[in-house]
């Protein structure tokens, strides 16, 4: 049996006999990639000021989007170099291609929600040969190497307002926009900006700082080490949920 067919056969079904649709919201940097591409590629262009701003985000003194926007504003390098650096350091997490193709084959939906630069994310996705999915990312605006305006980020207008994340910066708004009744929502992330959608997810796959925050808040989460194992974990979760639900058919 192919892996895709096994997914269909093993997936738990709801009381209508239908397999619930899976909606996967994925952060990009440090979640789909093996390392923090923004940090590796861009911090050398900024210097120590990068780390000082990073601390503001991790300690909840400033929203992640504002921090990244300020970091980007400190870069003095040609646009082509900035984008090239971001693309060159991006390596996919194990199993990412397999997960996306199998998820879509079984009728699921994937969306990338990131403050990262759209051009770099699109190049990464294209290099993997993956089918198109919704991408909510940032536009790099300005001229960091000339006499014009400094670089800034124009965030996706699908992001929402939030006391924690800041105005027009919260990823949870995308979750609410895409979620349909009956969906099983998966959130994948690694940083402070992923906490709000994680609070509203059915299953959270976390790395690094998001894992720490979920543990601190008592949110259930699973360590993300291999995307190839995700759908098997989801199907096990669905089977347990189905077994735990009271029988209503006889009522």
Question: What would you say this structure looks like, in words?
Answer:
With 251 residues, this protein is an alpha/beta fold. The protein has a single domain, classed as Rossmann fold (3-Layer(aba) Sandwich). It contains eleven helices and nine strands. It has a seven-stranded mixed β-sheet with strand order 4-3-2-1-7-8-9, with helices on both faces. A hairpin with a 3-residue loop joins strand 5 and strand 6. The protein is globular, with a radius of gyration of 19 Å.
Write the topology of this structure:
Blueprint: H1 3-10, E1 22-26, H2 37-46, H3 49-58, H4 64-73, H5 79-88, H6 96-105, E2 109-117, H7 118-128, E3 134-141, E4 152-154, E5 160-162, E6 166-170, H8 172-178, E7 184-189, H9 195-199, E8 203-206, H10 208-217, E9 222-223, H11 230-244
Parallel strand pairs: 1-2, 1-7, 2-3, 7-8, 8-9
Antiparallel strand pairs: 3-4, 5-6
Helix pairs in contact: 2-5, 3-4, 5-7
Core attributes:
18% strand, 11 helices, alpha/beta, two-stranded antiparallel ribbon, 7-stranded mixed beta sheet, globular, 251 residues, single chain, Rossmann fold, disordered N terminus
